[in-house]
Amino acid sequence: MKKRVVSASVLAIAVLTAAAGCGGKEGGEQGQQVKPEVNKDPITLQLAVQGTGAVVDPEFQAIVNEHLKKKYPHITINYNPESQGTTIDALLAAGTPPDIIITFNGNLASYRDKELVYDMTPQFQTNGVDLGRFEATYINDVKNASDKGELYGLPVNVNYHAMYYNKDIFDKFGVAYPTNGMNWDQLLDTARKLTRKEGGTQYRGLDPGSTIIWMSQPLSIAVIDPKTDKAIINTDKWRRVFELAKSIYDIPGNGYIAESPKDQFMKSKTLAILLDLNILNQLASAEKEGLNWDVAQYPSYPEQPNTYGNASVYVAVGTKPSKYKDDVAKVIDLMSSEEVQLALSQKGRLSPLRSEKVKDALGSENPALKNKDLPSIFKSKPVPYPVASIYRSKAESAAVTIFRQYLNGGMDVNTALKQTEEAVNKLVEAEKGKQ
Q1: Which of 19, 170, 241, 349 could form a disulfide with 344 if both were Cys (CB 3.0 to 4.6 A apart)?
Q2: pTM assigned to the model
Q3: In 10 A of CB 128, how many CB atoms?
């Protein structure tokens, strides 16, 4: 009994000591949450974006600003849109480099070459940033931009691939809705049943989105080798992708038309299945105009189940020229915190965090997303983002151009792959000749 009393006394003293310590640090009020930083000179951080206008929109800004005001009231963010005069290159040319950039991870290597970014790992450690809160894949995707494993920033949002479908078209033709876990052959069979002409209207069963590029990514294949800058597309795996994509567009009535796939799905409502990225908020708006839709898991290759392509990770990075590196690190930590990510998830934005609470909250504050099968999005995982050649984008454009020639009957698949190989090597040679 005596031993218990002593233990209780020690516990009581420890609790009081801890409370007094917290109270002294925060002005003597015990039991309260951490208060905002005080006695800081006001600063304004310049934030620029590249390729992320839909991410860093007014909704994102409002949520970040709300939490920033509570925790760091001395910091203001000035958001520079990606427009003439405020692009990253324009700001650099004007001698006014931004303090923070939000972009997708594919751009980071080019910033490294411009000496615009630096390893923020020490600052994140100083500020107690827990990298374990992120899905490891996304942190690795950011580190891939460095040949030394440096961390230039933190993920604040991620892309995903999903299957969106028009329930009314399925109902019209008596076809069962897509199920999670479908492979490409099963989806192709469903698309054939949905591609019909009815009452003078041509309905398309399926559009795979970014044609051969998204379809190739789950197989972890590239058009160009990042080490040699030589084309590596003349392979059996690429042959399979070309032939699969052609089989989709070769369904009678399911070929290319002038209207974009998104408009076919959301406006004219003549497309039954659309494979695309994060378009939940666009779909919520389209539902107000009569679109009856739902979402299912992205289709898989049999040997790569539950896998979709590259998940472009949107990253907030601090810039090397910034005079406010410590404040920048705090802001980036805040943007990727569970509190901010929870608020963004509730609006329908996919978070890079591992938190089940954040995942479960996806779209919960958007009535249009209330009864959708959003958990299907998490049934697939992305492949690691590739270390890419600086000529990746141009090489992929060349591949798409020749694929369309192949699709139109201009050549057989072997010729198409050979011509793509030759075209990519020539364009790289030409680009290097300009340097």
Answers
A1: 349
A2: 0.81
A3: 7
Q: For the segment 119-148, what is each residue's pLDDT rounded down to a tens digit?
A: 999 999 999 999 999 998 899 989 988 888
Instruction: Give me the helix-helix angle, 325-335 and 58-71, nearest 10°.
Output: 120
pLDDT at 10: 37
Cα distances (Å, whole numbers) of residue 431 to 126, 229, 391, 426:
42, 11, 9, 9
Distances (CA, A) of 21 to 15, 18, 37, 318, 357: 10, 5, 17, 33, 31
* CA angle, residues 298, 302, 303, in degrees to nearest 5: 115
Q: Say how far apart CA 307 and CA 217 lie, in whole Å.
A: 9
Q: What is the DSSP letter of 53?
A: T
pLDDT digits (tens, 9 = 90+) for 383-411: 887 777 888 889 999 999 999 999 998 89
- Could you tell me if 106 and 388 are in contact, meaning their C-beta atoms sit under 8 angstroms apart? yes
Give the DSSP H or E segment for 50.
strand 43-50
SS3 content of the chain, % helix, strand, coil (to 5): 45, 15, 40
Cα 159 to the chain's mean position, in Å? 2
pLDDT at 211: 75
CA dihedral 284, 288, 290, 295 (to 10 degrees): 10
Q: How far apart are CA 2 and CA 29, in angstroms?
A: 33
- The region, left, alpha or beta by phi > 0 then psi within -120 to 50, assigned to residue 79 is beta
Residue type, 348: G
The tokens for 395 are 């090489």
- Is residue 211 a contact partner of residue 405, using CB atoms and an 8 Å limit? no
Q: Is 248 exposed, middle or buried (0-12, 13-18, 19+ CB in 10 A)?
A: buried
Length of the chain: 435
Tokens 């008596």 belong to: 174
- Nearest-CA neighbor of 324 among 50, 40, 58? 40
R_g of the chain computed on alpha carbons = 25
Q: Under a CB-based contact definition with an 8 Å cutoff, are residues 428 and 229 in contact?
A: yes
Distance from C-alpha of 325 to C-alpha of 317, rounded to nearest angstrom: 11
Joined together, the tokens standing for residue 146 give 């460095």
